[in-house]
Amino acid sequence: MLEAIATPALLTLVIAPLVVAAVAATLGRRAPVFVARLGTATAAAGLLLAVATLPSASDHLAAALLLLIFGVSAIAQGFAVRYLAGDARASWFTCGAALLTSASTVMASATTMVGLAIGWTAVGLALCVLLGTYRELPAARDGVRRTALAFCIGDGALWAAVGLHHLDADALAPVVAVLIAIAALSRSAQIPFHRWLPATLAAPTPVSALLHAGVVNGGGVLLVKLAALSTPLAAGIIIAAGTASMAYGAVLMLVKPDIKGALAYSTMAQMGFMMLTCGLGLWAAAVIHLIGHGFYKATLFLSSGTAIARHQRHHMLAPPEGLSRSRQAVIAATAALLPLGALAAGVALTPTWAEGHAAELALLAFAWVTGAAATWGWLRRQPTLGGAAAAAGVLLPAAVTYVAVVSAVSRYLAPALSPSTTSPATVWAVIAAALAVLGALAALRASPAARGLQRSLYTHAISAGTLHPTGAHR
């Protein structure tokens, strides 16, 4: 049922967190600090063990996922040692985090569909335990209800797929693939299962880090591990839902006034990109993205207090007023060209890139958009040749490193992934369409003539992002 990365090592990675959970449940109230540090040390030791198994692992995908699982768990639990110090529910968090870590290990390393489903359901149950950390709060109970409902639908679909697959794999293949797609969309908070994720923000910040950096990636993990069961219909559903969720999450992220709320919709948008890559069969891109997003989003949630202070400084260092349209056009062109040139240099300096495929092209486009947005913000504050030179000095080494890492990870994962059947032409067509939509939204945002439409879009986005407690009268 489980992948033999090295049987003793894998059993240790599964059992050690369970021992911590048992200790937290029995001794947690009497020694909460000791239990919290034990959980952190166990997760950190698991991370070191996962790193040690990388070269000899027979399943490279499982080995890579274990790095994410134990890395995020160690970071979140280490943060919680001080964050929940003196909190009566500290041991509850340690117990839930340990259960989640063990269940995620089972899911990541499963080699059968039944084993994958067992780990999948266990992850959902452990998350609901964590979301109930402050169950006395109405908002926390509402978050648990919404999450449990979405997960029940997704888990029911997955277990139905398990049963049908074992009845007649060939005749029922389209139905099985659609059921798997439903399960993946529900776990990754994609439309139409998107309402549960922003309802979970009443949970303590370390729980949010585990959720947004780990659990929501489960949809992508499921699709990658069951890629051989995909069908065109299921892929179409995933592409449509992922694209819609990416746009929806990005718009609401821009209008949410609170840091954690904005991060929640950012996660939804990022998961939309991951679903899009899965629907296109770009399995390496999906795995690299979910691992990178996991560590990045954990850091963002745990440093949300710092982000508030940075946001205040952002207003104090507002861009200079009165930039002419021609100056803004030059800044926009420079912001687009600098990261493009840096990435081109990275490709030229990475010999293994010639072995690349469509998945790497998707990640290259993603990096370019991200770099262009960051450069645009920097140049609006430093609209000088010195500012452009400083941006280039940062972008070039970052791009070279990014390209080298993407290429190396893609080659490492290749033996464990289904071959991509998507042609580069299809990838570029999707990228072009996405960039056209982003360009249209940017033009709408910047156009003085579209104030009425901007206000209407803002109002509708704020309304869409407002959650009413389940069962409450509007």
What would you note in describing this structure?
The structure is a single chain. This protein is mainly α. It folds into three domains: 1-111; 137-301, no CATH class; 322-422, no CATH class. 76% of the residues lie in helices and 0% in strands. It has 18 helices and no strands. The protein has helices at residues 7-27, 32-53, 60-83, 90-109, 113-131, 138-167, 173-187, 205-213, 218-225, 232-255, 259-279, 283-302, 304-316, 325-348, 358-381, 385-413, 424-446, 451-464. The longest helix is centred in the first third of the chain and has 30 residues, at 138-167. The radius of gyration is 23 Å and the shape is globular. Residues 315-319 have low confidence and may be disordered.
Task: Sketch the topology as an H/E string, one letter per element.
Answer: HHHHHHHHHHHHHHHHHH
Alpha carbon gyration radius: 23 Å
| Contiguous helical run count | 18
Can you give the mean pLDDT? 84
Major sheet description: none
How many E strands? 0
Note the overall shape: globular
How many separate structural domains? 3
Task: Label the structural class.
Answer: mainly alpha
**How helix-rich are the residues, as a percent range?**
over 70%
